[in-house]
Amino acid sequence: MKFVFLAGGLAGFLLAAAAGLWTGRALDRVLLDAALGCLVGALLFRWFWTVLVRGIRETILHRHAAASATAKPK
Questions:
Q1: What local confidence, expressed as pLDDT, does residue 74 receive?
Q2: Domain boundaries, the chain
Q3: E strand or H helix at 52, and its extent?
Q4: pLDDT of 25-50, one tens digit each?
Q5: Could you say which of 13, 30, 39, 64 would form a disulfide bridge with 20 (CB–CB 3.0 to 4.6 Å)?
Q6: What sign for the dihedral angle of Cα 53, 57, 62, 67?
Q7: Nearest Cα to Cα of residue 1 among 59, 47, 57
Q8: Is there a contact between 40 and 15 (Cβ–Cβ < 8 Å)?
Q9: What is the DSSP letter of 24?
Q10: Which of 65, 57, 50 is closest to 4 using CA atoms?
């Protein structure tokens, strides 16, 4: 979870900084926008990770339930 949060922050920072530099903004505004992009990116990656993990968990539970239902009792 920590890795996903850090990766999201890095991705948000780099994306916002690159966009700010590409548009020719002042360096202080670029760094402010990059800091906000870091926060937003980290939160979005964390949300996406929880959605992904929940989906994987539900898939495993459904497969286990289906396997249990089709197993023949002895």
A1: 62
A2: 2-69
A3: helix 27-70
A4: 999 999 999 999 999 999 999 999 99
A5: 30
A6: positive
A7: 47
A8: no
A9: T
A10: 50
Give the Cα separation of 42 and 61 in Å (integer).
29
CB 11, CB 41: distance < 8 Å:
yes
For 69, the token pair is: 């239902």
Burial class of residue 45 (count of CB atoms within 10 Å of its CB; 0-12, 13-18, 19+): buried
The amino acid present at 27, given as its one-letter code, is L
Query: What span, in angstroms and rounded, lies between the C-alpha atoms of 11 and 2?
Result: 14
In degrees, rounded to 5, the angle at the alpha carbon of residue 37 between the alpha carbons of residues 25 and 19 is: 35
